[in-house]
Amino acid sequence: MRRFSLILIVFLSVLLIDAKTIKIITTGDMHGWLEAQTSAHQKLGGAAEMLTNWKMVEKYNQNDTLILSAGDNFTGAAVSSITEGQSVVDLMNIMKYDATVVGNHEFDFGAGKIAVWQKKANFDFLSANIYKKDDETKSWQKPYKIFNKDGVKVGVIGLTTTDLPYLTNNATTFNVLPYQKVLRDLVPQMRKEGADVIIVLAHIEQDKLIELAKSCYDLYIPLYIGGHSHEFAQRYTNGAWIVNSGEWWKGYSIVDIEVDQGMVVVTSAKQVYLWGNIKPDAEAANQLKKWTANTEGLLNEKLGYAANAISSEPALYNMVTDSWLSSEPNADIAICNYGALRQSIPAGIINYGTILGVMPFQDKLISIKIKGDKFLKSLPAKGNIGMSGLKFVDNNYILKNGGIIEPDKIYKVIMTDYQADVTSVYKDSPREILYTSWRDPVVKWLKDNKTSTAKSLESIIDTKQR
User: Fold this and answer.
1) What is the CATH T-level fold of the domain 18-290, as seen in this structure?
2) For residue range 398-417, what is the model confidence (pLDDT) as tens digits?
3) Is 195 helix (H, G, I), strand (E, B) or coil?
4) Helices 86-94, 47-56: crossing angle, 10 deg rounding
5) Can you list the positions of beta strands (E) in 90-151?
């Protein structure tokens, strides 16, 4: 018995020596928030601050660490939006990202923009389930990549949300295939190419990834990295970790995977919320300053003043739709889908950068002509939509003058081209482009109303739900 124990101890010692540990650091849904925010007089997040934490706390190095993004990297904060994502590519290069999955907001500047980013990026854009409609034999983006980290071959496969066609009007030429089908087709191929470990990098919410992990348990995938839903959470199910890493560079996840003679085990999965006065990494901070200086003139154009922070729902939706309707006197109604406005207006001076942060997308403003009965069918049942010229009273939509929407009457309705494109009822309606940017009438309205410390913005807008 003693001899057996001694042999076992020696055997386990050999395994321990040969084992390799690979670190995975992941972020998600960053939406261009390169700069740290402030909360309770402390800094929150920030790309340069996060890089400091990776270097000083996590002690990461490129030999054994993979840096991955779960998508939606670009559209959001003003500097990123005005540079159409180039500032974010620069910072992600400095942070040594290895790969990102393609998220739905990567299409905001048009599908062709992804190729422009790829030329400058030192990281890969992955998606295994987006195919051109006329050629489903080859995925549109690189489907996966096998990285060599400390002698371990780590295969990362990208999955984009199957809701993509409903979330953008810039993906009409693509089909998005089911997740499980793609994994079952490609994971065996990745293993034939030598992958010791398979990781799913997905722009998919956690609940759906949990179901995917359960249905693909026999593929022995130890880690699913998720995004899209801005969740900061991790779960373990059916032998796999499912990790979603929050939003806006506020936090990150770090996962250790031990690989030893064909055995793959997640030995640690932790999440770090980036809070406190962390000194920003010098190289990253200097690059961000260059981009900020280049865009300062336009972003700092003063448009108004708010004495207090103004939340997006419903106050800013009321303001935006009111400005749209006032810009087109012949229109009857203006509507804006909830989710279109991406942040609140903070207290203080309102400049163009503020509005760009609130309205970062490259949408046009259009009007459509539609019969009343069809229009009513398109509206949400509970009134959860921004609207001007319309109110939701006692579970019914009522015109601002108190009248009802008549079924056979033709109404002129203002909205973004995105909303018209993704709503089936509107697709056949005659449309007219009013502004090439949905922001233009909002900026004009703010300039015309001249808000200041004496007359703040919140004093002239409707802050109640309509």
Assistant:
1) Purple Acid Phosphatase; chain A, domain 2 (3.60.21)
2) 998 899 999 999 999 999 99
3) coil
4) 10
5) 99-101, 124-126, 130-132, 135-139, 144-149
Tokens of 62: 């490129």
Domain 301-459 in this protein, CATH class: alpha beta
Domain definitions of the chain by residue range: 18-290, 301-459
Q: How many CB atoms within 10 Å of residue 403?
A: 8
CA atoms lying within 13 Å on the CB side of residue 35: 13
Q: Sheet holding 251-260: strands in order across?
A: 124-126, 99-101, 65-69, 20-27, 251-260, 263-273
What value does the mean pLDDT take over residues 218-231?
94
DSSP 287: H
Cα–Cα distance measured from residue 463 to residue 466, given in angstroms and rounded to the nearest whole number: 9
Average pLDDT, the chain: 90
Residue with tokens 């340069």, as numbered in its chain: 48
Domains 18-290 and 301-459 share a fold: no
CA gap 289, 72 in Å, rounded? 22
Which secondary-structure segment (H or E) carries 418?
helix 417-422
Q: Is 13 a residue whose pLDDT tops 90?
A: no
Report whether 345 contacts 354 (CB < 8 A): yes
Our CA dihedral for 194, 240, 102, 341, rounded to 10 degrees, sits at -170
